[in-house]
Design goal:
Layout: E1 3-6, H1 11-16, H2 18-25, E2 30-34, H3 36-41, E3 50-53, H4 62-74, E4 80-83, H5 88-96, E5 101-105, E6 116-118, H6 126-131, H7 155-165, E7 173-177, H8 190-197, E8 202-205, H9 212-221, E9 228-229, H10 236-244, E10 248-252, H11 255-263, E11 267-270, E12 288-290, H12 314-317, H13 321-329
Parallel strand pairs: 1-2, 1-4, 2-3, 4-5, 5-6, 7-8, 7-10, 8-9, 10-11, 11-12
């Protein structure tokens, strides 16, 4: 049996789809249709036969691009498609590819194109929710261990991190991930946290090119000694490798949190406008959540707005760096 998984959402969603990939690979070959960024993240994954890039804004744009991709998929004669990303376009693509069995959730926008509609689970982590798509046809019982995301950095990623970090640090390595696409998800106290941890940990700032100004503030606050700015210097998969070497990571509700889950790195996750109950909390053993669960205005958005709707942004401003530093310190002793 050959299966196609369609997942063209955010990077974190791709990471959380890896348990479903592993589940379906027990039954036969699995291909995944993802964005270019996600394709690089899934490199080396042993459960994936082929990764196919869906360039929605480039060569696959418009009717002609859609038809070209549908023809490519049709030629592969998949037995089933699993719509981990439930848009109408993804559902229509699976239909146009003539995949006979199309599995998705009852509440998805593309449900009209599905042949098997799975009740949308409530109260589950998103990784578990996606995993249930693979249970639509039965199969063996599953355990919590099956829900652990997995990424597989290779030699190239290990070399890149070796070069960046240099000799093994005398102090435990702590990763900090201050960025987010959503402005209100960015906890503003990372520089103060870096100052509090200076001398007790070697700090590694993880992120993309856009996070470089934040990284400079954090490195300066740490005194510069031994702190490493990795923003824009590592691929996503190499960032996962670096996070995997850290004793702990402090992250907003953003992609590095899910990279840490895939690498088994304990996470101190700072939640503001969003809440873990949305299904995107850390999965690594020993992780901790920092939030104000008594603030009446939380949650205010599924993703996190660019500005606080009430103008005060208490959900993040009032999460003190001293509190977070105290939690992080608990991870620093062997």
């Amino acid at each position: 049996m050959s299966s196609l998984i369609i997942q063209t959402s955010f990077l974190g969603d791709t990471v959380l789809t890896t348990p479903l990939i592993a589940r379906l690979a027990e039954r036969g070959a699995v291909d995944v249709l993802v964005t270019a960024a996600s394709a690089r993240l899934l490199a080396n994954h042993p459960a994936i036969r082929e990764t196919i890039v869906y360039d929605k804004r480039g060569r696959d744009r418009g009717v002609a691009g859609f038809a070209r991709l549908a023809r490519l998929l049709r030629a592969k004669r998949y037995d089933a498609a699993y719509l981990a990303q439930g848009s109408a376009r993804s559902g229509a693509l699976a239909l146009a590819a003539r995949v006979p069995r199309r599995v998705g959730f009852t509440t998805s926008a593309g449900r009209a194109f599905y042949t098997v509609k799975v009740p949308t689970p409530r109260g589950m982590h998103h990784a578990e929710k996606l995993f249930t798509l693979g249970s639509a046809g039965g199969g063996r019982p599953w355990s919590r261990a099956d829900l652990q995301p997995r990424l597989y950095p290779g030699d190239e990623e290990r070399r890149a991190v070796d070069e960046l970090l240099g000799d093994p640090p005398a102090l435990p390595l702590v990763a900090l991930a201050p960025g987010s696409v959503w402005a209100t998800k960015r906890w503003p106290h990372y520089p103060a946290l870096a100052s509090a941890l200076a001398g007790r940990a070697r700090l590694l700032v993880i992120g993309g090119h856009d996070d470089a100004p934040l990284a400079r503030e954090i490195i300066a606050a740490a005194g510069g000694e031994g702190a490493v700015d990795a923003t824009g210097r590592l691929t996503l998969l190499a960032s996962a490798e670096a996070i995997g070497r850290a004793r702990v990571i402090v992250s907003n509700d953003s992609a590095p949190l899910h990279l840490a889950s895939a690498m088994g790195t304990p996470t101190v996750a700072v939640f503001g406008p969003t809440v873990p109950a949305f299904g995107f909390g850390p999965l690594a053993v020993g992780s901790a959540i920092v939030e104000d669960d008594m603030l009446a205005c939380r949650p205010c958005d599924r993703h996190g707005p660019q500005r606080c709707p009430l103008g005060h942004w208490k959900c993040m401003l009032e999460q003190s760096p001293a509190r977070v530093a105290g939690i992080v310190t608990g991870y620093l002793t062997p």
